[in-house]
Design goal:
mainly alpha, Rna Polymerase Sigma Factor, Chain: A, Arc Repressor Mutant, subunit A, 2 domains
Length: 184
């Protein structure tokens, strides 16, 4: 579904059209979940998706359409992730499960290459927040630089710079000399 159609569904949902609201969610849910998985704790992504939709639907009556509804929604998601991170830093985290890998496998969860996925997520999580947002929005979610600039409320050149620097940071973190130093 293209941005014009998503925006049209958002306007209809604001007027109470339940089918349009469902289509709006259906068209944006996957991208939204992907973004929130990388910008926050992957275990909290589902809850953050729900929080994003709660905030978005509450604000839909005031949505003016100055930007596509998808960009507007992703901007809300970015703020939801930031709020979550601020809140989680204030509270100590406890782990109720001794062996989370065994628990996940018992639940049927599996990934083709668990180690690489963990390393990738850790490296991305270690990026400076603005670089991580720009990198995830462009390289993981697949937004254009212009759309990412709109979501992040900055210039396209700033997004290009942040993505470039994020790539440099990731490449440096993956360099053999740095990996050997961190292991030894």
């Amino acid at each position: 579904m293209d941005d014009d159609e998503i925006t049209r569904h958002a306007f209809l949902a604001a007027r109470g059209d339940q089918v349009a609201a469902e289509r709006f969610v259906s068209a944006t849910q996957r991208q939204l979940h992907r973004l929130l998985t990388y910008l926050s704790d992957p275990g909290a992504a589902e809850d953050l998706v729900q929080e994003t939709y709660l905030r978005a639907f509450a604000a839909l009556p005031s949505f003016a359409g100055r930007s596509p509804a998808r960009m507007w929604l992703l901007s809300i998601a970015k703020r939801v992730a930031a709020d979550h991170l601020r809140t989680s830093r204030r509270r100590p985290r406890t782990n109720q499960v001794e062996d989370w890998v065994a628990t996940a496998e018992q639940s049927g969860a599996h990934t083709p290459d668990h180690g690489r996925l963990v390393v990738l997520r850790a490296l991305i999580a270690g990026l400076e927040p603005e670089r991580r947002e720009a990198f995830v929005l462009t390289q993981v979610v697949g937004l254009s630089y212009a759309d990412t600039a709109e979501v992040c409320e900055c210039a396209v050149g700033t997004i290009r710079s942040r993505v470039f620097r994020a790539r440099e940071d990731l490449a440096a973190a993956l360099s053999p000399a740095r990996r050997a130093a961190s292991l030894g």
